[in-house]
Amino acid sequence: MADQAEPTEIPQSLPVTSAFSPYGEPVITGVNTLGLWSLYLKEVRRFLKVQTQTIWGPAVSTLLFLVIFDVALGRAGREVLGVPFASFIAPGLIVMAMMQNAFANTSFSLLAGKIQGTIIDLLMPPLSVGELMAGIVAAGITRAFMVGAAMVVAVILYPNVSLGVEHIWAIAWFGLMGATMLSLFGLLTSIWAEKFDHNAAITTLVVAPLALLSGTFYTIDNLHGIFQTISRANPFFYVISGFRYGFIGESDIGSGTSAVVQAAIGLGVFNLALAVIVYLVLKSGWKIKS
């Protein structure tokens, strides 16, 4: 029809906008603090829901080690490094419980998702590999320090133990390094493991022997030369001896504070290297995305 209006043409000069960002372009830049905090709270609340098992249970069971070894070996006024035997082994038991529970927390995180089929809940949110790793590891460290605090309360109530603080920096640093190391190792185990038996095998065959054979109940000066060398290759030894140094001011790492400081720096470098390895493995998607 002649009187019908012709359709208006869209000027070619006007830009065509889209409600969505181009494919592959990240919407969240920088650190996703809200997502990281949410993941951290999720992991913390997971173990706090069963805190009788995850916090107080380990404290009680580790305290039994103190009672048994003190009764068996600490009688007749026995002293080690200038302090009563019970005061000698107490710091080692505290940090040993911290490390074992840090490992238990992170080694369960991804493994449970793989077994239950809910790992997509961790992989789909807009979290980078570093943020995913940081949230899980931070929760493991949090559990370690909660167990450590519960252990301190339990040990203080034990009549034969005196926990004096000689070097607060050593307590804080070696406790943090031990918890971080086992949190990272637990996350690596969680990536590798495909069933709970794999997790239990690492706990029984690797973590427990390294913890128990690291000078928790003895000084390595009592060992033969070759076994002293083996003990010094065990990173658990430096964590436990350095943590003990913070309480009693003595250590079998070496003579003087300089040896303890060198051990502290060495543990920091070791944890940094371990963190890089875990990051690269997690980023590759090995046994997670395949």
Automatic annotation (TrEMBL):
What's its membrane topology?
Multi-pass membrane protein
What family does the Swiss-Prot or TrEMBL record give for this protein?
A: Belongs to the ABC-2 integral membrane protein family.
* Membrane-spanning residues: 55-73, 132-158, 170-193, 199-220, 260-282
Keyword Cytoplasm, does the record have it? no
Kindly state which keywords UniProt assigns to this record, in alphabetical order: Cell membrane, Membrane, Transmembrane, Transmembrane helix, Transport
Any Gene Ontology CC annotation: ATP-binding cassette (ABC) transporter complex
Q: Which InterPro entries match?
A: ABC-2_transport_permease (IPR052522), ABC2_TM (IPR013525), ABC2_TM_bact-type (IPR047817), ABC_2_transport (IPR000412)
Q: What is the lineage of its organism?
A: Bacteria, Pseudomonadati, Pseudomonadota, Alphaproteobacteria, Sphingomonadales
Q: What is this protein called?
A: Transport permease protein
| Positions of the ABC transmembrane type-2 domain | 49-285
- Give the main localization category: membrane
Which top-rank group of organisms is this from?
Bacteria
* GO molecular function terms noted in the UniProt entry: ABC-type transporter activity
The compartments listed are: Cell inner membrane; Membrane
